[in-house]
Fold these 2 entries.
Entry 1:
Amino acid sequence: MFAITGITGKVGGALARTLLADGQRIRAIVRSARKAAEWAALGCEVALADMEDAAALTAAVSGVRAVFILPPSEFDPQPGYPEAKRVIDAVVEALTAAKPRKVLCLSTIGADAARDNLLAQRKMMEEALSLLSLPVTFLRPGWFLENASSDVATARETGFIHSFLMPLDKRFPMVATGDVGRLAAKLIQEDWSGMRIVELEGPRRVSPNDLAAAFATTLGTPVRATIVPRETWGDLFRSQGMKNPGPRMRMLDGFNEGWIGFSDGGANAIKGIIGVEEAVASLVQG
């Protein structure tokens, strides 16, 4: 049996559905009974656990072949990332007590960046899990193509998408969550020892201009990308309710300046099969 956290999200859901199609048994770890119905109907065993509840997590990951850890995303963390630390402490305690045969953790491109930024939360998780006496794989995908979901309305209504990534013709390592879920299903069924890092990006790198072109193709109308000026980010993010936008801004700087990336430029990264056109079409249709 495989225990899966984050099963109600895109990556966790794609992982679970792939494993179910392979005839595997799944324990769906969810925060509330309300979110469990869909997965129970698909034949999953259900366990209720919050990612900060070490006791509940221990019970949820006990007696399984492998565990998939998908840390919750905190886009407006308090200084010092206390939210991530609480999750990490609970996950480490649960895995230490339950001793599953192996662990697959969803991390991210940039988890090894030397400078502080929003993705440091994943670096902290990697460092903590690396100390466990368990086989652990860290899956580091690129920028999610599904981040463009916020561009659907503006592309359709105004003919523009607004980009924090720049310059507009720079191609970044991006990947669809469907590819992430499928690779996760493959990795979690493998046998390995010690710690390993697996990087993943899409079939080709994607620029903001490429995203705009994909929207134009899908919508059948001209769409252009336009840069959100760096000097406006702080006020913009605060106007949207953020209290500590600095880590997010530094993450974007890392992508734009090149200090967030794959360690070898992606030479050894696995390539997915879902291209930007297919991903954007799915977002528009959805």
Entry 2:
Amino acid sequence: MRRLQIVVLFLLAVVGGSVGSAWYFKQAPIETDKQAVIEIVNAQLAKQPKPATDTAAVAAIVGDVLAKQPKPELDTAGVKSIVSQMLEAEDAKLKQNSIATVASMDPSALDPMIEKYLMSDPGILQRMNDALDKQNKADQALKDKQAIAAHADELFHDADDVVIGNPNGDVTLVEMFDYNCGYCRGALPDLATLLQTDKNLRVELKQFPILSDGSVQAARVAMQFAKTGKDYWAFHQALYSSRGEVDGDTALKAAQDLGVDPAPLKANLQSPAISAALQKSYDLAKTLNVSGTPTYIIGDQIIPGAVPLEQLQTAIANMRACGSAVSCPPAG
């Protein structure tokens, strides 16, 4: 109602005449600027009792007064401008008072109100959690994409890695693994299926021994075996099909079974070149925030864990269809 009071009183003050000026003024029609008008209105508002009327009544009074009174110095646009300024100032005061009221509330009064609101709709907490999870995943996907782009050569074209499948394949799937990783062992059949069914798939195996010293020693042997030109896929399967912990001796035995003299492999276990290659893998994993095995990298996506075969097949298909393993845009 206060907004309506301001408008009515202001207009009565501006137009002067039989209604407004008879009530407030005893002088000639107003000839003044906007600021003076505002000051006059505010002064009169402070003195007069609040009229009780509604919006329709105010509109009727204003229309009647404007029809009867001579035009003041200010035109319609000027009047509207002043009224608008006054109403905006009033709104600002109300908002400021509301904020101050909330800020000054005692926690003992505010907390029950918040609790009551949340209890009235418990699902809001789940929706908030879902929204936060979605945003976190989107943020992480963007970080992964940027990190992969910055280290593409190290990821997809590292001379110290082993390439199996089609070396000229149109899609590359990188796997970071540990020979003592039970999940990697369990995922081996899925990798075999991909190689058998997709003759245009290139798989790059990246050593990432993190589970034990035995894992590190097995990786050192494996990296040397890869340079011999022998069948690495057979060696890879032999280590994962062995019993117990896979260590340096396990790897040396598998190499020997595949026709490689284990003596030079054992002699060069601590080769600086091998140590540097392993460190490069650790550094890359840290950059990509990779902390477990298996971890797959395809396109611009990092896929942690032993995911279902279908998920890997979908990622490969998306790479071919859209050039991105993350997603394909909807058809149409």
